[in-house]
Structures are given as structure tokens and as C-alpha cells.
Queue: 4 jobs
Job 1
Amino acid sequence: MKQYLPLIDKALESTIPTGDYGEQRLIDSAAYSLHLPGKRVRPALTLAFCELCGGEAQQALPFACAVEMIHTYSLIHDDLPCMDNDDFRRGQPSNHKVYGEDIALLAGDALQSMAYTTMLSDDAVKAVGAENAAKAARVLAEKSGLLGMVGGQTIDLMSEGKEPNLDTLRVMDEKKTACLIEAACMMGCICAGADDSKVAAAERYAHAVGLAFQIVDDILDVTSTTDELGKPVGSDTQNEKSTYVALLGIDQCRRTVDELTEEAIEALSAFDGDTKELADFAVALANRKK
């Protein structure tokens, strides 16, 4: 999947306005977080599923950038004092520590708008067709919105200081983490003009990968270090958040991650192309150390 990173980074760079603007501090703030070094998991998945369904990575690139913009805005807001109150992100100071809480908040807002501007540009629509562009944009809106990612973040905040059961925790993480990964994979299929059965299979793959990703995050929050992760560890305990580790223990968490990874690989059987890279990717995410 690393083959996509230069393509994604170059495309993201091109989305930042250049010139003499009165709102330059806002532009700098948005660019700061968008260009922090990261795994680019979501946009890479968009490109991979587009190619798997017979499309070209280039045509899905604006949609991949849009997913990363939504993800980046969520991280900026997550780090704010009113949310998780984290001072570091990807090994660098959080956006609000550099630009202040007010500009960081607005940068997140701006990145959300930029996502839709990018994937609904004339070139993007021409590349995939108006119907597919609209369908992909709707998927991203639904998966990142009220009953998707933002809804999951709300459940997370409302659960602080409480002891939600495993079902509540699973629903929260399905929305907070898995939904945006689902959007990334589904949008890749849509950009290639894939049928509904393949879009649904991509959603299943992403759902399993997304939950596994979050459980591994919970494990790393108690087993890793700030230097290894590039962000503070132990914040879940500090914020009195219920986690899979707290409810199941590390050993059961690791077994659950293995089960979810198998579910993800099984979902790939719906595709005709070579799915080895996506299967390997699921395994790599399950075994990641940061």
C-alpha cells in the first residue's frame, strides 16, 4: 500500500491555496495538520479498492484526498481541550498548541468543507461521472456525520466517567472509527463504477478492519510509549474512558482482533481481482506497533 503514499501526498499538497490571503493563518493551520506524516490508511484504501474494481487510482484520487481531509479535521477537533485534550499528534504538537484553539477549531471546519470542494470539483466529477461522484459524496457525508463518525465521538464523550457495556462500546467504535474506513473503501468501489454487491463487500471488509484498528489502538494505549506512538499514551485511563482492554483484557482483545482480521479477508472473496495486498494490509494493521 505504500506505493500510493507519494501520489496521495502530492495531491493533498495541491489542494492548499497559494497566494496572499487575509486568512493565511487558517490556511497554514489546515496545511500543518494535513501534511503531518501519517499512515494515510483511508486514502490508500480508496485507491486500492478503485483499482481492485477495475478503475484507475488517479480517478479516485480527489475522493481519497477528501477522506483524508475529513479524518484530519476529526483529529484536530479530537485533540482540543474540550475533547481529548492531547498536546501531541503524530509526534508533533497538536494543532491548537501551535495555532491556538480558535484557529484549530476553524481549520477543522475548513477541512470538512475542502473535502467536498475537492471531490465535487469539475475534474473529479468528469473522472468518475456525476452520478458516481454524488453517490460517493453522500457515502462520505453519511459515514462521517450525525449517525456516523461524529455520532460515535459523541457517544465516546458521553461515556466518560461511566461504565458502558461491550455492546455500547462496539457501537461507539463502529461509528467513531469504522465508519470513515468504510466510506474510504466504498468510495473506491463507487469511483470505479462497481456494482452494489462489491460496494457492500468493501463495507464489510472495512467494518472488520475498522473495529480491529480501534481495538489495537486500545491495546497500544496501555502497552506502548508516547515516543513509539507519536501521541500521548494512557489518555483513555486519564479521561475515564471504557475500552476493550478494560472490559476484555489484552489477551481476549488480541483474539478478537484476529477474528476480525479473518472476517475482513473473507469479505474480499466477493472480488474477482487480486486481493492479496488488501488481505496483507488487514494483517499488518492488526499487528501494528504504532
Note: Strands lie at 88-89, 92-93.
Job 2
Amino acid sequence: MYGFDYHRPAALSDVVSLLIADEDAKVLAGGQTLIPTLKQRLAMPTSLVDLSAVPGLREIVAEGDGVRIGAMATHAAVAGSACVRGILPGLADLASHIGDAQVRNRGTIGGSIANADPAADYPAALVALGAIIRTDRRDIAGGEFFTGLFETALQPGEVVASVFFPAASHARYAKFPNPASRYAMAGVFVARQGDSVRVAVTGAGPCVFRWDAAEAALTAAFTADALDGLVLDADGLNSDMHADAAYRAHIVGVLARRAIA
């Protein structure tokens, strides 16, 4: 890897100051994507700003009608949290199937969503549950956070501090993982909050998206049978050596029914 400076500030404000002072600096959370990228010399940041010493970023606490998860909470911590399991068991289950044990114990929710990998699992939960991403300067709605392939609404120097997930009467995630990487070749998160139903799809397209037709069908009748005969349009979906667009479109329908069931 290329040479870089390393910083480990003890306050979020100092993290932001370092990032603003150096536009080529990168934030280091769990490092599950960044470190391999550096080792392969695919990135050349002038410095890394490590979040591990900033207090409070690993908290997982009940808040209002939901749960707030600190940006540095690991996937394993989310999966094993009694708080998350009590309020949103579907979210805990999602976290328990990310990568492998090593990835779950190092990777963080903040790092995952800031990276915005199109095959990551958390984006589907953020969009389906109407989560709120809290940064050092503002709140961003989950549906507005992911803007494209590896792109988010974060501004230069802006850092994710926590994510708030509202409770849901029904919430479940189903995915078809790549057998090697465990990334989602397709993943569907279905959430029902009052009269509102959201169906968010990850892995199948260049960015997480909502399946409007499925939402309309499930709003009318919240059963797996309501999706019978419904087929996702394959236009614009990912097509690669693992699965073509038509296959992913089919899998999304299967996963949505599994999530409902």
C-alpha cells in the first residue's frame, strides 16, 4: 500500500476538523473495505482518520419508538444486542448474516452505509424502515441517503454518528448471498409500520431501491399470496458473471415472499 499519515482523535469534532483540513483523508471505521482497497493500491489517501477512540459511537440504545445504533457498532454487536432483538428482531437477523464471523466482528454499520456498496445488506433496512442517519451536522432520511453506486448524500468532511431505526410491527429481511463473499446477489427487506408498507431491494441494482408494485400489493393485503403473479422489471438491474438481470428480478420476487412468510 501507499504511505499515509494516521490519526486517532478522541472527539468527533476533531475528526471533522482533520477531514476538512485534508480533502484526501479517509475515515477508518471497521476497515473491511478500506484496508483491502489500500493493500491493493486502489486508493491513495494522504491520511486515515480512525474513529475507534471517539466515545459513544458504539452505543446501541432504545430511543423513543425505536433503537439508535452508533456508527461504530459492529455487525456482531447489532446481531447480539438484546435491545435490537427486542425492538427490531428482523434487523438483528440481517446483521447476523453479514459476511462471516471475522467480518461481523470488525465491520461497522456506519462504515457499511457510508461505503454504499450496491450489494450491502443494511441499505435495504435503512430504506424499508425509514431510518434516520445522524451525522455530525444534520439528520438524513434513509430514503435520501443512498444516491447511486457507492454514492451517498454525505458532504465532504461529514461523518455518520449514529442511525435511528423506528420500530415496526413487521420487519424481515431475506437475501440470496454470493456463496463466496456473502454479499447479497439480491436482498429484500419488507417493513410494515402502521398502514405503511415498504419493500426495499439491495444487491439487484446499482443502488438500493423500493419496489413500488410490491408495496401497493402488500398494502392491500399483507400476505405472501398478494405477490403472486407480480414480477419485478429486470430493466436496469445488475447483470454479471454471478447472475443476469432476469435471474435477479426473479430472485427478488422469491425473497419478498420469503420475507413476508
Note: The radius of gyration is 18 Å.
Job 3
Amino acid sequence: MYDFAYHKPSSVADAVKILSADPEARPISGGQTLLPALKHRLNKPSAIVDLSGIAELKGIKRDGDKIVIGALTKHIEVANSPEVKAAIPALAQMASTIGDTQVRNCGTIGGSVSNNDPAADYPAAVLGLGATVVTDKRRIAADDFFQGMFTTALEPGELLVAIEFPIPEKAGYAKMRNPASRYVMAGAFVAKTKSGLRVAINGAGPCVFRQPAMEQALSSNWSADAVGGIKQDADGLNGDIHGSAEYRAHLVTVMAKRAVASAG
């Protein structure tokens, strides 16, 4: 690791003040991404702003027709939440399959969404449910938040505070995991919401994205068969030693079928 200053603010306002004053400072929540990067000297922040002491960033609650989850809420808490299980069981199921036991007890939903790793799970739920990302400054619609590999609409010094998930009529999630790393090779989150059908694909491309052809098919026929004949274009998808772009394109259709089936 390189040397860095360490701060542990007790409020969002204090954290934002530190981050805004120092463009090279980086916030840390669960540390599942930043800590390995620091260890291998892939990142050299001037300061680390530890968010773990900010109580207002934690917790899960139902607010009318949506579930609000604080940025510092851990994966295991989402998986075990009675509110989430009752309102959006697909989200609780997703959280229960992230990484392994150690990761689920350390990692946070805000850290995962802010990092926007192509193989992360939560971005698919945020985009698939049409959630709203709440920061210290504004509210950002899911369709505007994810902008590319490890890139989001968050501005320097801006802090993700919470995520508001609309409660869907139905929702399901399925993924194919790399057996070694457990990262998603291709996944699909499908949801039938008040505003329409949404299908979000993660793992397969550089950034989570919607699949409009599948959305259109499901709008007239909610069934696994409706998406079974839709082929994902392999152009622009990820390809590596674990799977080609063509293989991932095939997985998109398979995972979408499974997601619809799991939604019922």
C-alpha cells in the first residue's frame, strides 16, 4: 500500500466536506474492491474516508410502494431483511448469492452500485426495477446512473446515500457464475412494474444494460418461452479466457428464461 491519510466522519455532511476538499480522497464502505486495489498498489488515494461510522447511511425500510435501502447496508442484511423478502423476494435472493459468506458480511449495496463492476449483481436489480439512486445532492434515475464500465453519474465529491426500489408485481433474477471467482458471467433481472416490463443484463457486457426486445416480448406474453427465441447480439460483449462474447450472448437468453421462470 501507498501512504494515505485516514478520516472517519460521523455524518454525511462531514464526509462530503472532506471528499469535496480533496479530489484524490476516496470513500470506503465494505472495502471489497478498494482494499485489494490498495494492497496491490493499483490505487493511490491521498486519503481514505471511512463511512462505516455514519448511522444515517444504514438500514432498510418500506416507504409506501417502495423499499429504501441505505448505502451502507450489507449484502447479508438485504438477504435476511423481512421487508425485502416480503416486497421484493428476487432482491433478497440476489443478495444471498453475492460472493461468499465473508463478502456478504462485509460488502455494502452502496459500494457495489457506486463501483459499477460489469460483473456485479446489484446494478442489474437497480436497472431492472427502475430504482432511484439518492445522493447527498440529488435523485438519479437508474436509466441515467450507469454510464459505462466502472463509470456512473456520480460527480466528484458526491456520495450515494440510499437506493429506492419500487415494489414490482413480479421480479426474478438468474445468473451464471464463474466457478472460481463467483463473479457473474451473464445474468438477467426481469421485473413487471407499474411502469412496464424491464429486463436488465449484467456480466455479459462492459456495463449493465436493458434488453428491449425481451421487454417487448414479455409485455405481451409473460413467460419463459417469450424470451427463449430472442438472441442477444454478441457485438460489444465481454470476451475472455472464461467465455467468449458469443458464449455470453447465449447465456443472456438462458438466464433471462430462468429469471422469468423464477419470478412466476
Note: The first strand starts at residue 5 and ends at 7.
Job 4
Amino acid sequence: MAAHFVVVPQWQGSGAERAMRLVDGADAIRGDLPASATTVIEVPLEAGDAEQTGIHRFSSLRIVRERQAAALAAIDGVPITIGGDCGVELAAVEHAARGGRTVLLWLDAHADLNTPTSSPSGAFHGMVLRSIIDTGLVAASDVLLVGARDLDPAEEHAVEHLGIPMIAIDDVGDAVAERAASGAEQLYVHADLDVIDPSEFEGVGFPTPFGTTVEALVAAIGAARAALPLAGAGVTEFAPASPEAASDDLPSILRVISALTRPSPAG
């Protein structure tokens, strides 16, 4: 099944100083996507209100989630969500998980396992994976945390308490295959671009040393897709400093998108 891109230039879930640049990043990626297979979600201009949730800008996040869910329900093809901040993954994973037991490959420098009470920032992009697990969309044992190297104490506790596997990037294929053998039916790939080492990729709000290479990231996605059919994917957190910087980073992003959309033996 062909890919369909859902561009969500959401910035309200980010805690970065350069959060608004996520809009520029989403627009830059959209420029290289096929217009006939791309849907753009309108994001409110206003920051939004917490609405007593403990989540900053929650009202805007709620509106985007509703619009994104409606768009996902209307498209044909495998949805590839383009952020925006990582918060866009909640609606995307919710849509994909309706297809059966899902392995969630979480390629990210951060675990995104905080809650509104544990988060030091109140930014939803640091809570989205915990929300996915706590709402029962994906079992904690079917989440593969890859590349995470900047965890808060509460997130470290969550990894241990919930039993979330932390996997080396070279072991991704085997880890996905093990879950396929135990009955998992499909794969969702989340790629926060800060999983890549800053020496290779600069356009993120929270660059974190000792990341992976683009080559290893692409290989891991390919290995995962060889083990299970892809139900959806997300590429998030592109926040270029300038149009020139965006041009420098786009070839790497397009390699990641190609790894997600090229034909795979598992479908």
C-alpha cells in the first residue's frame, strides 16, 4: 500500500526555545513531498491554555489531535506523519493501533515518558510515549526504546517499572522479529530527528551528543520493516535555524522518509 503523508506543523507541544521553528521544518519537508499524496493539518495560531491539565498549551494540542484524527480516518495508504513536535504521534499511533497488536519502534534521544505531574517543563512532547502506553494503545513490552540517552529520573523509573526494553540500534531487527514471532501484527516507527548525532544533523531543538548516524538509522528502519508490515510512521522535531540550514539537513530527512516508504518484504 502506498504512503500518504500527513503534515502537522504543531509547535505547541514543544518545550524548546526554538519551538516555532518546527513550523518552518514541517514546511521545508512538505516542499519535497508529492502534493497528491499529502494532507496538511491546520494548526491554531494561538499558543493555547493548559485547561487545568498540567500540560502547557493543551487546548491547542486538543484541537490539532481532533483534526489529525479526522484526516487520518479519511486517507488511503500508510500514513507517514510529519511533525511538528513529538506530540503529533498520539493521534497517529492511536489510528495505527486499531489494526492489531503493534510494535512501536521509538527512535529518539529522549524517552518522552513523563506525566503531567513528573514533567519538569509541562511540555507534551516529553509525555507522549507515556500517554500512548497509559491509554493502552501499545503494550510497554512492545515499545522498543532506541537511541534514548537523555532521561529524567522519572523516566528512568518508568523504563524500569513498566518494563520498557531499551534496545541498541543494531539489534532492532532481531527485537522486532521476536515480537512478530510472539504474535505482533504490525509496526509503527517513530523517528525524532534528535536521535541522530548533532555532528550529522543540527536542526533540532534539543541536540544531544552521542547519537546514531543517519546510515545506522536507515538500516534499523529497514530491518524493522523486514520483520513486520508498517502500519504508520512519524518523523518529528525538525527545527532548522534558517532556510539554508534546512537545505543542509533535508537530504538526511529524505533518506529516512525513503526508508519508511520503499517496498519491504513484510509489506
Note: The chain has a mean pLDDT of 97.
